[in-house]
Model the fold of this input.
Amino acid sequence: MSKTTKQKTSIPAGAATGRPRSGTGGKDLLDALPWIAPVLALIVGVVFFPAGVMFYNSTRDISQSGIDKGPVGFDNYLEVFNFAYFWPIFGRTIIWVIAVVVLTVLLSLALAQLLNKAFPGRQLVRLAVIVPWAASVVMTTMVIYYGLEPYFGIINKFLVDIGLIDTPEGFGWTRNADTAFAWSIVIAVFVSLPFTTYTILAGLQGVPGDAIEAAKMDGASPSRTYFSIVLPQLRGAISVAVLINIINVFNSLPILKVMTGSIPGYDADTIMTMIFKYIQNQHKIDVASALSVVAFVIVIVIVAIYVKVVKPMKEV
Amino acid sequence: MSTATLPEQSTHAPAVPRPPVKRKRRYTEDQVSAGKVAWRMAAGLAVLLIFILPYLIMFFGSVKSKSEIRSVDPTYLPTEWRWENYITMWSTPETPLVQNLVSTIIISVCATLLVLLVALPAAYYTARFRFPGRMVFLFLVIVTQMLQPAVLTSGLFRQFITLGLSDTWLAMILVNAAFNLSFAVWIMHSFFAGIPKEVDEAAQIDGASRLTVLFRINLPLVWPGIVTAIVFTFVACWNEFAASLVILSTDGNQPLSVALTKFVGQYETSWHYVFGVSIVAIVPVVVLFMLIEKRLVGGLTAGSVK
Done:
């Protein structure tokens, strides 16, 4: 901020259109540095540098107490891939991401449709939909974990009361890897709905009303109107929502950690929970780094697709 | 995490407020039968109930007695309301909850302030001035937006050990700030870009300095963007879990999100306390989020904190 006098020499760009011409001279860069350097420092220091540390550690032999014993080439990667449960975990990660994202988007499309219509109390419903977005995922997951507990869980009790379960003590949902994983998908969809619904809701605002009016005049049925007029207009909003959700769901740790963390074995793990098992239970930071690199590469590929499909830079 | 693309109408939102109500009407039939409205209200009520149900269970559980919440014949509503749980819960033996709350607050507040301090100048400058590398800079910001602490935790963990920052609040303040920076830069950038440059020029002709223009003329106009950035960042930091889980090893340093997981798998989990603390942790951020609800519908959505 103390460099005010310098900035006066910079030429204000055509900011109103958001398309300043690209600059030349190094002096302009020097002028810009005090304003952008803190951001660069944080990004480089806390995002890129740890990524580098991670790559480096993935090729080292690091003892459980954290002492670096030298290079081991790709041994850590071999340990990751040769682990008997690796491919099941890999497959489960794909199921996890696809199931959660597909269910989330389909439900959000319906939800956004409802929230876009006028009815008394709509504002209240919209506010309620935000709650799982703001609330801690850990805490949301814990209340459902409690609800599913045998004997005293309230969701179990409800399922018994309406006759879906006939054992009075309820069902051991959280004691079995498959059912705990299935419920984790339900929770992940639940906490992903708010963001997705709001993104689609924002997209619906951009659908021209006269196009819908015209379709109606032509005698198109509501479903026909939706699929041929509204849905194509939502393409942008849906692709943003899908890609952000893929990243979030892939990176999600707390739901599976709470729901399946106390189940022995590796029958409900994804790549992300496996990384944390390597770090926390086995204290193998070198192997954890190797698996993190694998995860990182997957994320980078998704980001590349995101940049290509959504073209976020076009509006700069 | 947050999206980078902002719908075009958002770019002029601060300077030229448009009437949002009119736009919503466009996609709503003018004449709707009473039956349709009733159907929508019923569906709306169902949605409302489903979305707040877990938190209702949480609330009712938080005022039950320990014997009631662990009863083999569970009750939907508390038979006796134990409000004193909200006082006794803070001295539960599983984890030092008061310290966890303090830790959550300090990390979230400091990280949010750091984000604001660092992102605001960058957002302003990139929106107002051209310089070589500007696009590269903005591209870097967008890319980091897609990265989350979870995937980099093993690297962060080793780096902070090397720096002697492992198990410190400072480490988590830096992590939270770095990973939420991009959204803040992006949203404030779009607000600054939405102010016509004529506004700046007119002020400068009147003899205002660059800093005067920034603080007196621009900041009031981008204020909604700043509030949105603050709320998003704060809520994301408040709920952060993965990196804190590994980097903060001492019980007292951990935020509530990490501390509460220690109750799971206990022989006798004090669920009523877990829920009491959860309610205390959830209500403030939900209220904050509701304050910016308009901005979410308006298309500045750009984000989710999960």
